[in-house]
Design a protein that fits this description.
By secondary structure, the protein is α/β, with parallel strands linked by helices. It is about 30% helix and about 20% strand. Strand 10 and strand 11 form a beta hairpin. The longest helix is centred in the C-terminal third of the chain and has 11 residues. It starts with 19 loop residues before the first strand and ends in a 10-residue tail after the last helix.
Length: about 230
């Protein structure tokens, strides 16, 4: 006689994709400059494992997720200053961070903050970035100062656009909330980084995960590129 007891449905397991490797240049930046990465983090295997175990997301989301390796960069491994009066512990220095990354994101530090090691990192890592190189706020000027934006379309904080056009004439600066040129995604003011990431997310994640990430953070998509 066959048993009437049915075996429990197996719990979906994460797929076997390689981890996304993401570097965040956060030294002397505003917290909101890089807070937009939470949209990506909400699609990670580690985050969704917690959501599934607590009943906040369906189990099959795990099969759509990707593991992520986060690299938070600064000049040293000492806690790095960010505004407002926040200190964040870096995971890597500019010198020891791997160069074979998928995504690089820069916040916008003051114009006089241009460590030589960071410039060297950008020149070596940006050409190898497999998916995207991003900046928020005046991080666009930081990218431009390393020379990697020459010949590209880009944007930065609207208040800094006149300066950007005067100093970095090899870049086509556009007055938009965010601009895409190949793998380069640049945003205006810090909050525009959320719009940019909301638009970027569907290029690398399943629509179900994208919507879940937006919903969980109350981010209603992107406001679009034009102000």
């Amino acid at each position: 006689m066959s048993s009437t007891n049915e075996a429990p449905a197996p719990t979906p397991t994460p797929n076997n994709q390689e981890p996304l490797r993401i570097a965040v240049l956060m030294e002397h930046c505003q917290l909101l400059d890089f807070a937009c990465i939470d949209l990506i983090g909400n699609c990670s295997t580690s985050f969704l494992s917690v959501c599934v175990s607590n009943g906040w997301a369906p189990p099959h989301f795990l099969t759509l997720s990707r593991p992520i390796e986060w690299h938070y960069l600064a000049t040293t491994l000492d806690p790095s200053f960010c505004t407002p009066d926040l200190h964040v512990k870096p995971t890597h220095t500019y010198d020891d961070c791997p160069r074979d990354l998928d995504i690089i994101l820069l916040g916008g530090p003051p114009f006089d903050h241009r460590p030589e090691a960071a410039d060297r990192f950008l020149k070596e890592a940006v050409p190898k970035a497999k998916i995207a190189v991003m900046s928020t706020c005046v991080g666009g000027l930081w990218l431009a100062s390393s020379g990697v934006l020459d010949g590209k379309k880009a944007t930065t904080n609207r208040g800094a656009l006149p300066m950007a056009r005067e100093i970095f004439k090899g870049v086509e600066w556009i007055d938009r909330r965010w601009v895409v040129d190949g793998k380069f995604w640049t945003a205006g003011g810090a909050a525009a980084g959320l719009d940019m990431l909301a638009a970027f997310l569907p290029t690398i994640f399943d629509p179900q995960l994208v919507q879940n990430s937006r919903d969980s953070l109350d981010v209603v998509g992107s406001r679009g590129q034009n102000y």
